[in-house]
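User: EcsC family protein, Psychromarinibacter halotolerans:
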Amino acid sequence: MTDQRKPPAGPGGIPEAVRQAIDAQREFEKRRATRLGRGAERLTAPVSGVIGRMIPAGVVRHALRQADRAAGLTIPGELKRHDTDDILACDRAALRVQSWSQGGSAATGGAAGWFGAAGLAVDVPATVALSARCVRATGAAYGFYGDDEGERAFRLMVLEVATSMASENREQAVDGLNALARELSSPEAKILLEKGGKWVTDKLIERVARQLGLSLAARKAGQIVPIVGGLVAATVNASFQADVARAARYAYRQRWLMARRMLPPPESASA
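Assistant: Predicted structure for EcsC family protein:
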């Protein structure tokens, strides 16, 4: 478990590395989806509804449940070897997670996209699995290894933020993520969350599955063309994993800062 020690104070009482981390948090709160991701969604909007019907919510929901369970078994040991009290070391480990997540997802997308629409049956579960692994591995990079209901709910909310990057609901999703982060940093609130955690997680899975399905449908519409779809799928998958990795770094960096009382209670993202 991440301990509560504060890093040594630097000039002004706050280490420069922590100042940079706080700046990165504020930058993320103002960020939108990658330009590539937004462009792909605009270009493929006319057929995204058709693709949406090819990605049933039930398939995404099942993939989410299975992926989160499996992700804990596949986290590289190297993510637990650095000093988790060193925010720069944590950031470096999390960036390595993004690198292999993007590479793996681009490879699976490229292979599945070769078969056009038929490849979606393989590509969507693989994308969900890699996303879940990316979130969980990023948590490990910052010293958060828990697997109780509260942690599962938090991981789902990270995916919700990632899939709402270009939507009007982004600020609400970030606010909800920060609210849960505060609860998980409080022993009393965490106990209450655990009592109703299964119900909360089930509700979140339903909500995130719908959001994830819509996001993937919008991004993957260009994948339905055989052969050409391989290039589209590889590019879009890598862009989506970048959004997931950035959301996960924001989420767990926020908790790292909260745990060490280096960050004041976060204001609403809409403030």
